[in-house]
Design goal:
The complex is a heterodimer of chains A (about 110) and B (about 110). Chain A is an all-beta fold and about 110 residues long. Chain A has strands at about 5, 10-15, 20-25, 30-40, 40-50, 55, 65-70, 75-80, 85-95, 100-105, 110. In chain A, about 0% of the residues lie in helices and about 50% in strands. In chain A, the strands form 2 sheets. In chain A, strands 2, 4, 5, 6, 9, 10 and 11 form a 7-stranded mixed sheet that branches. A 4-stranded antiparallel sheet of chain A has the order 1-3-8-7, with no helix packed on it. Chain A is globular and about 40 Å long. Chain B is an all-beta fold and about 110 residues long. Chain B contains no helices and 11 strands. Chain B is globular, with a radius of gyration of 13 Å. Classes of the chains: A mainly beta (about 110), B mainly beta (about 110). The interface of A and B includes residues 40 and 45 of A.
Chain lengths: ~110, ~110
């Protein structure tokens, strides 16, 4: 049981390049999330998906797109990377029902030059 | 005003000490509350939920005061392994968790 996995772990991009961050969970969770974490800012929600086939914007969606490919996978795409997108990106999934326990992947460290 | 506010610390305490962290939240409609722990360069992990009546898990005690919109975490008999950043987390509605910026704890021998 791997929980939530993310690839890649590290990435360096040049301004204007595109890339897709991959996330998968094997816990059969319906809800999945993408966050970014910056020093002094805490975790901020980029996009989330309450179930397969649905996605919604979070607090900071500009410059990003997402795809909920199936129940397991939720990808985040940067179409034209900017230095302001340098951050640590975490994917998470949520236990169904009850209280909001989220399980996080190990993160992707992205540097945009 | 931030939706969830925490003292960033760092709190530097010796092994065996008792340390308390506080957190305030602004949305009175918030439904549930949590403490997450984040080790350096790692992902956040749930430490414990916070219940209205207060709850304890070993050396950790969490309290909630809805009237004052205030959450606390008490760690007794601190261990070196408790060194981490502690995130206060508030669920304001379905599928929306708000994370505080975290309080850093450093336990020294």
């Amino acid at each position: 049981n791997a929980g939530v996995t993310q690839t890649p772990k590290f990435q360096v991009l040049k301004t204007g390049q595109s890339m897709t961050l991959q996330c998968a969970q094997d816990m059969n969770h319906n809800s999945m999330y993408w966050y970014r974490q910056d020093p002094g800012m805490g975790l901020r929600l980029i996009y989330y998906s309450a179930s397969e086939g649905t996605t919604d914007k979070g607090e900071v969606p500009n410059g990003y797109n997402v795809s909920r490919l199936n129940k397991r996978e939720f990808s985040l795409r940067l179409e034209s990377a900017a230095p302001s997108q340098t951050s640590v990106y975490f994917c998470a999934s949520r236990t169904p029902g009850g209280r909001e326990t989220q399980y996080f992947g190990p993160g992707t460290r992205l540097l945009v030059l | 005003r931030k939706e969830v506010e925490q003292d960033p610390g760092p709190f530097n305490v010796p092994e065996g000490a008792t340390v308390a962290f506080n957190c305030t939240y602004s949305n009175s409609a918030s439904q549930s509350f949590f403490w997450y722990r984040q080790d350096c360069r790692k992902e956040p992990k749930l430490l414990m939920s916070v219940y209205s009546s207060g709850n304890e898990d070993g050396r950790f005690t969490a309290q909630l005061n809805r009237a004052s919109q205030y959450i606390s975490l008490l760690i007794r008999d601190s261990k070196l392994s408790d060194s981490a950043t502690y995130l206060c987390v508030v669920n304001v509605r379905a599928d929306k968790l708000i994370f505080g910026t975290g309080t850093r704890l450093q336990v020294f021998p």
